[in-house]
Amino acid sequence: MINIKDKSDCNGCCACVDICPPNSISLKTDIEGFWYPLVDLKTCTDCGLCEKTCPELHAEELKKNDYEKPITYAAIHKNLEVRFDSTSGGLFSALAEKTYKDGGYVGGAIYNDDFSVRHFISNNKKDLSKLRSSKYLQSDASGLYIEVKKLLKEGEKVLVCGTPCQMAGLRSFLNKDYDNLIIVDFVCRGVNSPRVFRKYLDSLEKRVGSKINYIKAKSKELGWRKLTWKFTFENGENLFETKDENLFTRGYLHTNVYCRPSCYDCKFKGFPRIADITVADFWGIENVEKSLDNDLGTSMVLINSKKGEAYFEQIKPKIQYKKVEFENILPGNPVLIASLGKPIINREQFFHDLEKSSFDEIASKYFPFEGISAKRILLNLLKSLLEVKRMSRFRPLPIYQFIKYNFFKIAIKTNWKQGAFLVPAPDSIIEINNGAKIELNGRLLFGFKRIKKSKLESRLLIEKDGKLLVNGNFTFYYGADIEVFKGGELIINGEGGANINATIICAEKIVLGKGVQIGRNVTIRDNNGGHYISRQGYKNSRPVIIGDRAWLGEGCTIMPGVKIGEGAIIGANSLVLTNVPANSIVLGNPAKVVDKDVLWKY
User: Fold this and answer.
1) Nearest 5°: phi and psi at 27?
2) Nearest Cα to Cα of residue 428 among 443, 453, 449
3) 254-280 pLDDT per residue, tens
4) Domain spanning 374-595: CATH superfamily
């Protein structure tokens, strides 16, 4: 019978639970949040099936396939909506769509209501949105193997995706190959503790003051490479955290402390693979096939069996693909071969502290965000100097303006350690009145010229008692006219930019959210220039709030009092007079909603 003495000997695949004839094996979860088989000695018949099925005990026997060295591809799904909603390039979806089309069943990991993870199988294509995308947690696969075997014996076509150890468990459970079965695994760095993840979610809910109702790992709205988690809360708020901001990701990547013990000596690394097809992120694709890389995710595909090869041929009309040399996949994907490194902090103490502390407290103790290092300060300053060189092209006036406004104008406060400076280009006219206030927590490039010989003027005016706050790097191209009047406040949250001839007229308050992109000839104003209309409730000025990652198309005009939701898209030449819902597209004069629930990436 199964008797786990060393937890590193159990990968939690649950195959032993499903194989036990008298159902004598249950799962017991430990302090770390991982489950292990528990045998009821009263009902156990000591038949030995659990040990015969355990993939950990038979890894070398299971590691066999048609191809010792897989056939390798880079690929992306042709449907951009599918690719946006996928972790990598959408290859699992293409494989699943083929099975659904044939009337078959697809199995994979889905979230439960509490965002723990379990394996699930169905023949309903509507379930694909739940199945796609990585969950990064250990999933409970108990019951899966029984259901798969039942479907296969009934002659149903089945495609199942899981971790390499789970799919090894499936192979062992079935004890034979089936022509109507396709097994897909993925390149796994290590599965994380469901308990740790739940602790992390609790900390987010406390911070926002609302329950989470949607989670997406590797949200593409900020780009694939940023490894962004997206959380949506019941109060309608969205939270995006990149790999540099997300504490859960930081603990996972930097400490290795909350992966399953078996992951530190994974028996399913290397080749041959057990699955018919292996999918993964194609890290390093930019060095292999640039045509398949636009930071929306690219899949690496390993064809391990003849059956997998035949199946891949059938999905080729749905994908763009390029066959690549096997050697090209290894540099960016070392976890194909190597197990997870041992934790760099005390694991036992970590989980002991987790029981009585919040995740934020744990993160602060074990993997805090480090203060800015001297090396980073030097790099930031060097980058800013290079920007001065690029922007000024060694002309005296912009160099003089850079020195004057960043070092001698007391109205300007710069976070110089972050390389946050005002960097003007030639033909920039800058007027900062006494009593004005500018705070730079990001680099502001002003008047950037794509056509270097252009004489197009860029103007920046901050009047007395006017305020400009820049919280991240932002670029205004040439022809910009940015005016903050007395008492006005312009807040730019960075990571975006404004193309040629942007006009911003601020008398009260204008906020540009993080990642806002502004097209050519766009006008944003929060006032009517002192003109009054004889109507009840009329105000000359009203704040304009533009949400994170909004995209303002060429020639559009944003009028006073408008609030644009995050991720919204304003069509070219539109006149926006009323509020715009998040993730919608508006178009026209006056602008009207023409599409909803739209995601986009710059």
Assistant:
1) -110, 130
2) 449
3) 999 999 999 999 999 999 999 999 999
4) Hexapeptide repeat proteins (2.160.10.10)
